[in-house]
Amino acid sequence: MSAFWLFSGGALGSVVAVVHAVLGQRLILRQVSGLSAVGKRVLLAVFHLSSLYWALAGLLMMWLALAAPKEHVRPLGIVVMVIYLSRAIGNFWATRGRHFGWVLLTVCGALVGAGVFGLTRG
Q1: Which residues contact 85 (CB under 8 A, 6 or more apart)?
Q2: CA nearest 57: which of 93, 117, 6?
Q3: Is the sign of the CA dihedral 26, 31, 56, 61 positive or negative?
Q4: 10 Å Cβ neighbour count for 79?
Q5: Residue 101: which of 91, 109, 116 has the closest Cα?
Q6: Largest Cα–Cα distance of the chain, in whole Å?
Q7: What are the tens digits of pLDDT across the range 45-98?
Q8: Do residues 62 and 51 make contact, with C-beta atoms less than 8 angstroms apart?
Q9: Residue 113 to residues 16, 27, 47, 67, 81: CA-CA distances in angstroms?
Q10: What would you report as the CA-atom Rg of the chain, rounded to the nearest whole angstrom?
Q11: Residue 115's CB: how many other CB atoms inside 10 A?
């Protein structure tokens, strides 16, 4: 395990989540029309819950890097890595690669993977 990579992946993931929530609310969600009130609430919930989950996953990685018992690092790190990478694949597929979020999420997943599987800073 490399705490540097885990912490870096978690920090970047948390920043991406906050930027996603703020910019998404300002640039996309305010302009949505054609949905019922319920539809808008569902869209807002799904959009912001994904940001919340990414941020919490990032905070979990930072905690794993700094204070977690060693036996928790690999299983939790793998779960977070899969979350970031599967979301990157989904983003790439849904936008046909035209949204840069898939790149950022891939980097987050790769950093977490490097931490989990022991890549050392060189």
Answers
A1: 105, 106, 109, 113
A2: 6
A3: negative
A4: 14
A5: 91
A6: 54
A7: 888 898 999 899 999 999 989 987 788 888 999 999 999 999 899 989 988 988
A8: no
A9: 17, 32, 25, 18, 6
A10: 16
A11: 27
DSSP codes of every residue in 108-121: HHHHHHHHHTTPPP
**What's the token pair of residue 95?**
């936008």
Q: Two tokens at 45? A: 């919930």
Residue with tokens 């910019």: 23
Amino acid at 61: M
Helices marked H in the chain: 3-23, 37-66, 70-95, 101-116
Predicted model pTM: 0.83
